[in-house]
């Protein structure tokens, strides 16, 4: 079995780089995107096993992006696990996340041990 491919959608390059390093250490293959539009472009070109989605991104935020992913015609892509990473600036609730198809969420600052655990629980399914 090849390594799992994770798309990190995060506009902060600092957080992006730390997350990439932590996940590469866990043998995940990593691609990154700075906004929701880049996420959709990346997904059009290749398959991922999970997405870590920052909620507050420029051009298209994580909520809108998740809705568009769930509306994709490709069943594999439309069902990809999405874990939201949020500073919760707009105080979204888990119901809000569920409504757009986000599987799970974590607060910033991210606890990377929890993140690794959460990711592996989705990827083992």
TrEMBL record:
Record keywords, A-Z: DNA-binding, Phosphoprotein, Two-component regulatory system
One Gene Ontology term of the molecular function aspect: DNA binding
Positions of post-translational 4-aspartylphosphate modification: 54
Signal peptide per UniProt: none
Any Pfam family: Response_reg
Keyword set includes Phosphoprotein: yes
Gene3D superfamilies in alphabetical order: 3.40.50.2300
GO biological process, one term: phosphorelay signal transduction system
Every Response regulatory domain range: 5-123
Listed PANTHER family: HYBRID SIGNAL TRANSDUCTION HISTIDINE KINASE J
Protein name, UniProt field: Response regulator with CheY-like receiver, AAA-type ATPase, and DNA-binding domains
Species this protein is from: Bernardetia litoralis (strain ATCC 23117 / DSM 6794 / NBRC 15988 / NCIMB 1366 / Fx l1 / Sio-4) (Flexibacter litoralis)
């Amino acid at each position: 079995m090849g390594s799992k491919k994770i798309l990190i959608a995060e506009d902060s390059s600092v957080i992006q780089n730390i997350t990439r390093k932590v996940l590469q250490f866990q043998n995940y293959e990593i691609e990154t995107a700075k906004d929701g539009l880049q996420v959709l472009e990346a997904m059009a070109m290749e398959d991922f096993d999970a997405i870590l989605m920052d909620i507050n991104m420029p051009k298209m935020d994580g909520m809108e992006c998740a809705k568009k992913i769930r509306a994709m015609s490709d069943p594999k892509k439309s069902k990809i696990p999405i874990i939201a990473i949020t500073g919760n600036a707009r105080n979204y609730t888990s119901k809000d996340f569920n409504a757009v198809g986000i599987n799970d969420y974590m607060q910033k600052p991210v606890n990377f041990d929890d993140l690794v655990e959460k990711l592996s629980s989705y990827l083992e399914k």
